[in-house]
Amino acid sequence: MPVTVSYPGVYVEEDASPSLSINNSATAVPAIIVGNDDRLVKGSDNQQCMRITSWLDYVKNVKTILGEDYAFDFGSSDDGHRDTAIRAYFENGGGYCYLVLGNCATARIPCYDDISLIVGQGVLDVDSADIGTLCQPGTGRFAIMDGSQSEMTSTYKPAWQSNPCVAVYYPYLRANWTSNNIPPSVVVAGIYCSVDRTRGVWKAPANVYLPANYQPLYKVIDDLQGQFNSGLAINMIRNAVGGGTVVWGARTLEDSDNWRYIPVRRLFDSAERDIKSALRSMVFEPNGQPVWEKVRSAITNYLYGLWQAGALVGESEKEAYFVQIGEGLTMTSDDIAQGKMIVNVGMAAVRPAEFIVLQFTQNVGQG
C-alpha cells in the first residue's frame, strides 16, 4: 500500500509478497568416477570429492596432495590412467567437474545440486546398481558410459537394461601423448560441456569433431553402427569421410519415441531442475490464486526463453509449451486442503535430424 507523505523525512514501504523468477543453471557439471584410491580426494573438504576447474587446477591439486615430485607420465599405472582421463576431458572442452570415488558415488553425488552428469570413465560399470540409483527420470542426472574395451562385432550382445538417462559410447580412443587407451566417456563428457556452452543443452552432442590427435581404437563401419543404433543403442565415434574423428550418435538406452534422444532427456532434466529450484521459495506461501499466478507467470517466462532460443518446437508459444495451475484444473479442493500445489508443465522438445533423406527425381521431358 502506498505510504502517505506529509512531512520531510525518510519513509519505509514494505512489500512482503515473494517474488519468483527462474534462472538457467549450469547444464553440464560432471562427476567423474576415479576408482577407489582415496589419496586424491582425502585432502578435499568433505573427504570424498575434489572440485576442479581446469587441467592446471588438477595438476596443482595433485601436487599439493601427492607431492611436488609427482610425475604426470600418462603411463599404465592407476595414476596414469586417471591423469590420462582427466586431461582428455579438459582437452575436449570440459568445464568444472568433481572427482568422486567409485565406492562412495551413490552416497556423495546426491549431496551436490549442481552435478548433472555421471561419467563412468572405464571404472563404473553401466550395469551397476549405482547407475540405477543415481540416474533415473526425476533425478536431474544423466550418465555417460563406456562400451566394450575390446573390438565389437556383429555377435556382440549388450546386457544393459533400458534406461533413458544413460548413453553409451564406443570405441575407446588413443592419442599421441599417452600410451593408455582413453575411455570415450571422458572425451564425450567434455563435448557435452562444450556443446552446452556454445549451442545449448537441446543441441545433440554429436557431429562434433575431436582434436586431430584423437583416433578411435577400432574402426566402425556403417553395418556395425546400424546394428547398434536401435534398441539399447550404442553411440559410435568414427573416422569421418574426408578425415577427422567425429561423435556419430545421440541416443539413450531407451528406444521409445519420447526418450530416444540425449538432448530431449537432458533438456527436460535441465528444465525440471531449474523450475524445482525456483519453486522452493514458494513452499509455505498461501496456496491460492495470487501465488498460483506468480508460479504460472514465472514458468511461462522461463519456457518462453527456451522457445526463443530454439529449444522447443512450434510456430507459436501455444504449440511449444503450456503451463497449467489452478483449482479444478490441476488441483481438487482436497489437494489444496492437504497443502498440495500441483503444476502441469508441457514442452515440445526439438529432436535431432538423425536421418536426412534426399529424394532426387529425374524430370525427363523438361526442355
Automatic annotation (TrEMBL):
Cleavable signal peptide: none
A Pfam family it matches: Phage_sheath_1C
Ranges where the Tail sheath protein C-terminal domain occurs: 255-361
Family classification: Belongs to the myoviridae tail sheath protein family.
Name of this chain's protein: Tail sheath protein C-terminal domain-containing protein
Species: Paraburkholderia domus
Lineage of the species this protein comes from: Bacteria, Pseudomonadati, Pseudomonadota, Betaproteobacteria, Burkholderiales
